[in-house]
Write a structure and sequence with these properties.
With about 260 residues, the chain is of the alpha/beta class. The chain is built from 11 helices and 10 strands. It binds coenzyme A (COA). Coenzyme A binds next to helix 2 and strand 6.
Amino acid sequence: MELQNLMFEIENEIGYVTINRPKKLNALNSRTMDELNRLFNEIKYNDEIKVVIVTGAGEKAFVAGADIRELNELDMNSSRTFAQKGQAVFNLIENLGKPVIAAVNGFALGGGCELALACHIRIASTNAIFGQPEVNLGIIPGYGGTQRLARLINTGRAVEYILTGDMIDAKEAFRLGIVNHIYPAEELMEKANEIAGKIKSKGQIAVKLALNATLSSADLNLKEGLNLEANLFSLCTGTKDFKEGTNAFLEKRSPKFTGK
Ligand code: COA
């Protein structure tokens, strides 16, 4: 499938995915969701890519939501599949097996907020605005917002934002823990690159397993989670990167990880 609504490039082992419908504030229509599905399936199995950065084209929006023109056509026969398809795309991103950074450069509303929530690390420009305004349209979030926002900022806060549709500016998003950092818009990609650069310089098996273990904390009880952590910790000690990392420390030099 030719990419019409996404831009994609790989540079220095980082995959850059840009939602590219700036005239519609990068709203996610079906074509864009299909392209995201296709692209992230390729990224998942492309060993050249160690970290992914997702952002929106233009200066105004990350993604201003699902495409309301398409939403308007939904009925009770089509809408369940519509939501499940979107959820599957965002599950694919969350379970990609490599870190995904959302560089939120403006409006992240509805499906845009849900896309950011499915990414592993979120950073924002000072003009970023988050929100789940679906109630204004007579619907509820359908691409994971009720579940991921509640897990991230707690149920009471999520209920308020989802039931009022209130916007969350960058400072508030930082205070709530939705974003890790706020930067001036012109520095956002540079800072995303810095984080990606740090991550890709580490042993990649450890990165992958650490991501897996940490994400699992949302689904497992403490006993199960600690069991998983011990198993994955043990797996790491079978890697060349573990020997290299510990030897390098003892020899007072920088490690040269090979991802093996
Ligand atoms: N779906 C489809 N089109 C959208 C859209 C969406 N979610 N969000 C913005 N657009 C389109 C607008 O219709 C407009 O298109 P047009 O120029 O052909 O009329 C264009 O993007 C620019 O948006 P506009 O509303 O003119 O920009 P603004 O700066 O006045 O307002 C927002 C920005 C984000 C506040 C406003 O666009 C908005 O409320 N969007 C919908 C947000 C939403 O409810 N998202 C959740 C959907 S589930």
